[in-house]
Amino acid sequence: MVQFYLQGGAYNIPALGTPFLSTRDTVSNFFGALPQGYIKLAPKGSFSYLAGKLPTLIGAEDTFSFENMNIERGILWNQENAVNRGLQVSYSKGKLSGALSWNDGFYSNRYNWISGMLTYTPSAANSIEVVGAGNYGTTDYSSVATPLFQNNSLIYNIIYTHTGKKLVLESYAQLTSVPENARIHVGHTTSTIGGAVLGTYNFTPHVSLAARGEYLDSTGNASNGYVNLLYGTGSNAWSMTLTPTYQNKGFFARAEFSFVQAMNTTSGDVFGATGTNTTQVRGMIESGFMF
Length: 291
Prior knowledge:
Blueprint: E1 2-7, H1 23-29, E2 36-41, E3 47-55, E4 83-93, E5 96-103, E6 113-123, E7 126-135, E8 154-163, E9 167-178, E10 190-202, E11 207-218, E12 236-248, E13 251-263, E14 279-289
Antiparallel strand pairs: 1-2, 2-3, 3-4, 4-5, 5-6, 6-7, 7-8, 8-9, 9-10, 10-11, 11-12, 12-13, 13-14
């Protein structure tokens, strides 16, 4: 069986702790007007094969707002890639599923990343997922969609998901590491480690509340050759997000209130026009139709 998927249009990718980009700048600087699209070969059996612009295997949050509990992506998501160009083999049988992908990492058009994931689903309501991905070479190219250090990193996740009648709960731990590499001026291996809890509670068939809490820490200091992966070398941050939502058939409306606190920062690398604010407070409203 041959299947295909295409996703097209204008979009934004709002994320905590980063400046908000216009729709025009987002589309032109990230993944274009067709951000995802692939061909899938699904013969009989447990395996399927994909080729094209694929959604990442990494992390608990997806790329686009309509796919997620919250309007904005979180601070852990900022360390992950989003869309990969490449090949993927997927497997599913019984309580086990998995995937292995050869791709271009942070949309670099340099094919030197391997990503893999394995999911165990002991019951219909619970699953545990292990993810590993990384650059097996060196990529000295960078762009808005391809941050230099993150594109040369290794990324690991452990993700637990519970899906109940009224409550959906997702928690995950994440470790990233950028190995020492003179070619891209990384004088000392630099890492981030963090965790997040996300949940949605459905009060009625039409009204729900989503929430997310996160903490992210980075290692080192600039004098010893560590690089900046967050808000200055060795900085850390936490965030809270609340997203009340109303949905009736295809119509939905949701508001969002978010707060980010950055600590141990470097002036100029944080928030605001001058990069000196250590807190970010946002409010957002999103509404539309899903069909």
